[in-house]
Structure formats: C-alpha cells, structure tokens
Design brief:
By secondary structure, the protein is mainly alpha-helical. The protein contains 5 helices and no strands. The protein starts with a helix and ends in a 16-residue tail after the last helix. This is TRAP transporter small permease protein.
Amino acid sequence: MIRAFLLFTDWTARISEFVATVLLYAFCAMMLGEVFSRGFLNQSLAFSWEYSGFAMAGVFLLGLGPALRHGKQVRVTLLLSRGGPDFSRSIEIIATVVAIVLAVFMLEAFWTTFLTSFERGLRQPSYMNTPLAIPQSLAVAGAVEFVLALMARLVRLVIREEPELHETGEIAGD
C-alpha cells in the first residue's frame, strides 16, 4: 500500500512536471509573439499578457511538487548540520509535517477560490473574458500535487528511504 502511494505520487509529479514544462514553453512563445507583433506589426496581441500570466502561475504552482522531489526547494541546512543523522531526520520530519499543514491551507484557499469562480461563472474582466475557473484549476492541481509530494516525502522519511532524487532521476543509494 505504501509503495503504491509512493509510485502514484511519483507518477503525478511527472505529469505535473510535464504540464509545467508545456506551460513554460507556451509562455515563452506568447511573449516572443508579443515582441514580434509589437516590433513588426505595431500592435499588441490581445491575449498574450493575460494568458502568459496564467501560464506562469501554472508553471510555479505545478512545479512545486516536482521541485520538492528533486531536492530543488530552498533549504536552510545550518540546523541540520548541528546534529547527527537521527537529529537531522527528526528535524526533516517536523519541517515536513508543518509544511503539509501549510500546504493544506494553501490548497483549501485555492479550492475555495476555484469553486466560487466556477459556481458563479466569474470571468477575467478583459478583452478575452476568460472564465477564471480555468486558470484557477491549475492552481488547485499544483496545490494538490504539492500536498501529495509533501506526504510522500514524510512517508519516505519515516520508512528511512531517501526522500529526494539525484540529478540522474535515481533514488539515492540505488
């Protein structure tokens, strides 16, 4: 059961990472299109700024879980270096539990915002008139993935498995 959960979270992290990558390329393409349009056509693209902002928010939020799994999150290792391996592991567990609580609050906030926008049919007050539930769904998906990644990290710490992947994508110790 634990192994199935860890495999599931690794799978969802790969999907989240893929979608974030696609959104990053889309963001870059829209900005290049905007530069070309302004430079050669003397007019702005109506959608580029709005959709680029949505894409960038999606990149940040969908990238949280995969960044955690790859060990790319910001960390302060001063406290971890003060004690032995058991002390460091205990601090990691406590920090992960606190992070889970905060991430659940973040998820609840994104979910409430998404649900309100969806139920009321709220739209971005712009030329494109985009339904806000669409970009907000990316925030919800990113928050869900982040909570799953933190829970998987906690499980890995408790069962004394390496919680982060190496650059090659392999688990430490393999």
